[in-house]
Amino acid sequence: MFVIEDIPTEKPFDYAKHSTIGCGGKARQGYYPRSEIELCALLQQLPERPLILGNLSNVLPPDADMNNAVVCTKKMTAIRRDGDSVYAEAGVTSGRLLQYLTQAGLSGLEFLAGIPCTVGGILYMNGGAGGQYIADRTVSVRIYRDGQVIDIPISDCAYAYKQSIFMQTNDVILGGKFRFTPKNPNMVKAEIQRWLLKRAHLPQGKSMGCVFKNPQGYTAGQLIDGAGLKGLRVGGALVSNQHANFIINDQDATAEDIRTLITQIKERVWQTYAVRLEEEIRYL
Q1: Omega into 33 within 30° of 0, i.e. cis?
Q2: What's the predicted TM-score (pTM) here?
Q3: What pLDDT digit, counting tens, does each position of 72-119 carry?
């Protein structure tokens, strides 16, 4: 019989330790289920709804300590192949998935190379790069909803630019099924390297990746740069001089530093271009 005590835990769960931006307080308890079965059983037994997280790469945690439970999917790493389709659990990282696909000679998600995401996170926000998005290769998304496991076809996911139906529901993403094109493994590997080279110019250090969505007809980075905001600092948070859509935590920034900087960026871009920037990141 499954019991919560069997699941690896971390008490407390330190947001600053686990998030790529490197700031935030602590949650009361962190759980690390190792499979979909463990995650579903955990959700059924916990007395409260936990916060579900993956790689914490596109999120801004709060500064304050919170009396809540966190479920981190990083240990849910199963991958199964069915012909030219592959099912990956929510905690599978882009790096692990691409390694598997390269060895299998399956092409279609090379654009994920270098993006520090998990399958669950990228399905949640329809992440992508270079005009390609995870929805382009998704067949279905497996979710936990009200005690049931359901496979949602792509047609019901309401995918759009950095959007999905899952942003409006309480569904928990368990994994996704993707379709691929057979290709020589060496060609898949070469395409991955091409994407890695394209991302090599991006800022290093603690960040959340791109902070803002690209408004129609613009890129957020160009607008922020054009407003003269590269190098703008609030406390330990800095608008990157390499890519203006990145905020870097280079001096022990707090979440409040970053929130204040985001507000200043939005106000300045509005004043300069009359364009309203919308965050791509998620606030926890």
Answers
A1: no
A2: 0.93
A3: 999 999 999 988 899 999 999 999 999 999 999 999 999 999 999 999
Q: What would the pLDDT profile of 143-171 be if each residue is shown by its tens digit?
A: 999 999 999 999 999 999 999 999 999 99
Are 118 and 74 in contact by the 8 Å Cβ rule? The answer is yes
For residue 49, the SS3 value is coil
What one-letter code names the amino acid at 213? K
How far is Cα 20 from Cα 5, in angstroms, rounded to an integer?
A: 28
DSSP 8-state assignment for residue 136: G
Nearest to 164 by CA among 146, 149, 152: 152
The one-letter code for the residue type at 14 is D
* Separation CA 36–CA 159 (nearest Å): 23
DSSP for residue 135 = G
Is 197 exposed, middle or buried (CB count within 10 Å of its CB: 0-12, 13-18, 19+)? exposed
